[in-house]
Amino acid sequence: MKIVVTGGLGFIGSHTVVELQNQGFEVIALDNLSNSSVTVLEGIERITGKKPVFEQIDLREKAAVQDFFQRHKDVSGVIHFAASKAVGESVENPLLYYENNINALVYVLQSLAALPQAHFIFSSSCTVYGQAKQMPITEDASVQPAISPYGNTKQIGEEIITDTAKVTGINAILLRYFNPIGSHPTAEIGELPLGVPQNLVPFITQTAIGLREKLSVFGDDYPTPDGTAIRDYIHVVDLAKAHVVALQRLLQQKNTEKVETFNLGTGTGSSVLEVIKTFEKVSGKPLNYQIVGRREGDITEAYANTDKANTVLGWKAESTLEEALASAWKWEQRIRS
Ligand SMILES: NC(=O)c1ccc[n+]([C@@H]2O[C@H](COP(=O)([O-])OP(=O)(O)OC[C@H]3O[C@@H](n4cnc5c(N)ncnc54)[C@H](O)[C@@H]3O)[C@@H](O)[C@H]2O)c1
Predict the structure, then answer these.
(1) Which residues are catalytic?
(2) Which residues line ligand 1 (CB under 6 A)?
(3) pLDDT, tens digit, 9 for 90 and up, residues 274-294
């Protein structure tokens, strides 16, 4: 079965391509390489023994998207990762984000709706919940007004898909990721942040390897046990596997609604200081860090209630925080060697 993975050379996309190929799917990866490198294909090949078909397409080009799907009417499903994802950049350049994350989505859906097998998986985010009132967060927690254009693109994206599925043959699953970290255990593929990382774990590994002088911990006065913010860190391989399970649910027509939503997390919250301590333990390296003031827009805590994914999808995150951090560290050492 032929599956299209947009953003297939990116961080989560590349790990998902690996898991799809491991399950025997034929993958076509689409990417414009705006935040990835074509060498990722070799990493995927070294892990799976197979290089996926790759087409360099910018999904903002409507004609290119239409042309692609005209040539591939036998596609069985699309997993849509392609998007811009830097929250700060989205505040500075909102139109870039609306163009890339919304226009591209619309073009892909227009083409997909015309296909006989219109199965669609969407990369959404726990940012849609804002600071939820209750922990852990269930899928029916209310969606809060977005605090950044990036977050808004995820909310609007979910709405566009829901409206479209009502009146087309599209069946969709919205996957709300918590905090993906780590790399493939082989260290053949991993996260390649451009510039200064916005996320905690790449910043930790870059500090540990000597690329950054020190890690800033934003705030130790949150109402949490150690005062630092709490997130739900999920190993990217577990996350990738959830995409395959979700796709199979659609392909086997087991979905009970045209659009279903699942949280993807571990169900456990870890504070920034816990992540630092765990990293120091698995790497054997003391980390140079400093507590500074809170960062604007950061919330106190977010971790998932994963019951729905566990019971309905039959998927559960398996890796520990130690394993995820060890894989991130192995990857950092590999790319800097
Ligand atoms: N990484 C996270 O923390 C996180 C959390 C929640 C949701 N998400 C979402 O998951 C998805 C994947 O995230 P990621 O971390 O793998 O990001 P990434 O930047 O590593 O991967 C995205 C890929 O899409 C490609 N791309 C971007 N715009 C494109 C376009 N117009 N045409 C073709 N290709 C394009 C990029 O080159 C990149 O390879 C995104 O939609 C992101 O918003 C990520």
Answers:
(1) 150
(2) 7, 9-13, 30-36, 58-60, 81-85, 100, 104, 123, 125, 177, 180
(3) 999 999 999 999 999 999 999
